[in-house]
Amino acid sequence: MSEKFKNSTFQVRLPLFLGLALATGILIGANGFQPSGNNPQGTAKSYLKFRDILSYIDRDYVDTVNVEELSDFAINQMLEKLDPHTAYIPASEMDVARSYLEGDFDGIGVEFNIFKDTVQIVAPLSGGPSEAVGLQAGDKIIKVDGKNIAGAGITTQGVFEKLRGSKGTKVNLTILRRNEKKPMDFTVTRNKIPTVSVETGYMVDNHTGYIKVTRFSANTYDEFKSTLVKLKKKGMDRLILDLRGNPGGYMDRATRMADEFISGNKKIVYTDGKGTKYDNETFAHVRGEFEDGPVIVLIDEGSASASEIVSGALQDNDRALIVGRRSFGKGLVQMPIPLNDGSELRLTISRYYTPSGRSIQKPYTEGMEDYEMDILNRFQHGEFFHPDSIKFNDSLKYKTLHGRVVYGGGGIMPDVFVARDTLEVTNYLNELYSKNLVREFALTYYQDHKADLQKMPFDKFKSTFEVSDKMLDNINKEAKDLKIKYNDQEFKRSKNLLKNNIKAYIARSVYGPEGLYPIFHETDPDFQQALKLFDQANKLNKGYVQLGINKFRVEN
């Protein structure tokens, strides 16, 4: 989420992803409005009924009411009768909804956190207008256009509303900067700010590349292709593609990404809707950048929609080893339909199927509440820790290109299961994150040691920098000031993970995302197991596919 607000990678890895994919669907371009030919009389009758009721309420109801709010409420109630992903987006929310999927937005270009009810700049985005006027990491924004926002209960949405605006418009910021006695005033001219969905790509070793894709937005394919080419030039001949926590986005970006790995004219995905209007088959058709060489795809319960298109296509074509936990199970395609007041209807018009014929959409017949609780139910039933708790329906058995058994009925089941490791995750650690304390502590440390850190090459930092016990004592003292109750047993359990996360965030301030992820990955069980599985991935790539569903699994 940007102007640019970022949750920690730690936070992204650990939640139960409740409702994660509800707002983000697989989107295709909308056609112009066409009246229904299925039941024109019924549609007209229902429309007139709704119009009459709304008119009576507006004219005769005893109290003054906002008929627009009533209409929006009625629309949302109606859509809940359809499926969990058909959605109505009011005009007031369209800017934020679009910015998630579009490749850029108009704003000032900062990554920020809200800490102690104050907006603090984590980093000005490279090449953006905030960097150009001299805003720095650690600056605290206390006023926007002369109006106080510090200590005023500002929210992330509130920051978006104040900092975003049309290209060319100006916003006046009052800043508190560390070691400066007086507030500083800056005038920033808003500009087009690119959003990044390929968060990082780096060489793990001389042969292994790693690419993290956070969503499928307008620029995702171009970013991915560029990163893939860059890593190949550095010697990459095997790849880890990380789609964990990726809630999806544009379907065509997903199919183009899959095409980079799949040779010939093999099927990638197909859709099936009412009649044949929205039926479509997508095949590989270009010479991809990485059609040979072992590939491992990381997925989890937060990988949805377009992420499942990619992982399902690569699994069904025996092109990649899928590692992690069962994906979300979102296999419905939405078409965005703009409405005349600036709002938008995102209407489900088809289901998508993997090449073997699997529908990845999980059931939603028990109602919206049950659907939203699915991820939590998986956690409570032990699925995150024991794959045997998943019951497969033999009637939904399918086979991959070379005969491996895979199952439909709800999400992509990985070839190699890796249990979630929660041993070091405690309530105390979660409290530190809920107050943004870990990120804030690392940023402050960076500011205090900036000169020395910037002289240090990343390899040296990675191998020699240690988070000391004194640093941990300081963060515990700050936690006490924030009324976070200290728990010695939980602190000791979380100590190594906390040290890793602090070090990673310091590296993020010094070296960017390329510094953050290599350190995070040192305590990432999915990533560490993936590094051990390239022999299996290579056999799969060469056609040796005697794996079977979940024959290989790793439990922590």
Automatic annotation (TrEMBL):
It holds the Pfam family PDZ_6. One of its GO terms (cellular component) is outer membrane-bounded periplasmic space. Keywords: Hydrolase, Protease, Serine protease. One of its GO terms (biological process) is signal transduction. Residues 93-166 form the PDZ domain. Belongs to the peptidase S41A family. This is S41 family peptidase. The lineage of its organism: Bacteria, Pseudomonadati, Bacteroidota, Cytophagia, Cytophagales.
